[in-house]
């Protein structure tokens, strides 16, 4: 599976209708959808489709025809995402009607074509990358261990994390892939006798506790 790291845009013009496709990371989908509806308030339709991996490792798919004939726009757009093997992405297609009806087959080709154009833009611009499954890890560290973990995160280039401080220390939250978690788990073993403790672990990590 593959994913993207930023928003990509493409335009397809068919029989005076304009199809503006916006391919985005799933994290940007909601805000982009709201922005496009405001910016293109004169557009007839804003069709969309999404594919994302939930916390149970299941692929969740959604789509909307947004007033187009059922099955002519949202589903073809979703099929284009599937065909490219994309995950944790969304696509929105803004349509400006040109006065000429395209028919069922024409709409299917137009929407899937617009999405594929956006996907091709992402490929050409180097924005498509291998998708890595990352799960949330939470753990508690007392203040006495804070600097040790700060140094570890810095040396491993783990800059995207959250910390909630309390009177005793901090609860850390970070998303890690399998290899990153295995390294962190190995590092944490020397603190087992201290107040350090894991609070949330990735799915499938229980095997690490058998030793």
UniProtKB/TrEMBL annotation:
InterPro entries: Impact, Impact_N, Impact_N_sf, Ribosomal_Su5_D2-typ_SF. Transmembrane segments: none annotated. GO terms for cellular component: cytoplasm. Signal peptide: none annotated. GO terms for biological process: regulation of translational initiation. Residues 15-119 form the Impact N-terminal domain. It holds the Pfam family Impact_N. Belongs to the IMPACT family. This is Protein co-occurring with transport system. It comes from Campylobacter concisus UNSW2.
